[in-house]
Amino acid sequence: MKKELDSKDIQILNLLLNNARLSNKEIAAKIGIAQSSTHDRIKKLTQKGYFKGTSVQIDQKKLGLNIEVMLAIKLNKQHRSVIADFIYKASQLPGVIQLFHIAGDHDFVLHVAVKDSDELRVFILDRLSTLDYIQSTQTTMVLHNEKVHNIL
């Protein structure tokens, strides 16, 4: 953690990490500082690049996406161009929530949400496997997904 953050900055980051929709007024009340000070601190944190963006968590089940899997992928080539091409193409596939480039037995892990096992089969066989540099895949079903914010 960078030393330039004081305890109030860390409190602000934690609050926004758990609820990015909090207003400056709400944050100020929770950490005991003036609303203008909260605004200035958030502006400073933004300018220094502490925020990568703002996102919303969508309830996938409400969209009919009832199955989540972690799909480990091994490539048959390790060239930078192949890796870049895979990252680009895999990130465009419908259902991909996150893409991880990893070290170990596999090269990538895709976090994927699909409607059912038929849609998963289509995802693997008709979309993913069309990339000729995929050597193998291993699918692990997610039983429960809880977003935990213990980074600070």
3D architecture notes:
The protein has 152 residues and is α+β, with helices and mostly antiparallel strands. The chain has two domains: 7-47, Arc Repressor Mutant, subunit A; 60-141, Lrp/AsnC effector binding domain/regulation of amino acid metabolism (RAM) domain (Alpha-Beta Plaits, 2-Layer Sandwich), CATH 3.30.70.920. The chain has helices at 7-18, 24-31, 35-47, 80-91, 117-127; strands at 67-75, 96-101, 108-114, 134-141. Strands 2-3-1-4 form a four-stranded antiparallel beta sheet. Strand 2 (96-101) and strand 3 (108-114) form a beta hairpin. Helix 2 crosses helix 3. The longest helix has 13 residues, at 35-47. It is elongated and about 55 Å long. The termini are close together.
> What is the CATH topology assignment of the largest domain?
Alpha-Beta Plaits
Intertermini distance = 8 Å
Give unreliable regions as ranges: none
Rg measurement, Å = 20 Å
What share of residues are in beta strands?
A: 15-25%
CATH architecture of the largest domain: 2-Layer Sandwich
**Mean pLDDT reading:** 92
Across the major sheet, the strand order is 2-3-1-4
Number of domains: 2
Largest sheet: 4 strands, antiparallel
Task: Please identify the structural class as seen in this structure.
Answer: alpha+beta
Question: How would you sum up the global shape?
Answer: elongated
Q: What is the quaternary state of this protein?
A: single chain
The number of E-state strands comes to 4
Q: Strand-and-helix sequence, N→C?
A: HHHEHEEHE
Question: Can you identify the CATH class of the largest domain?
Answer: Alpha Beta
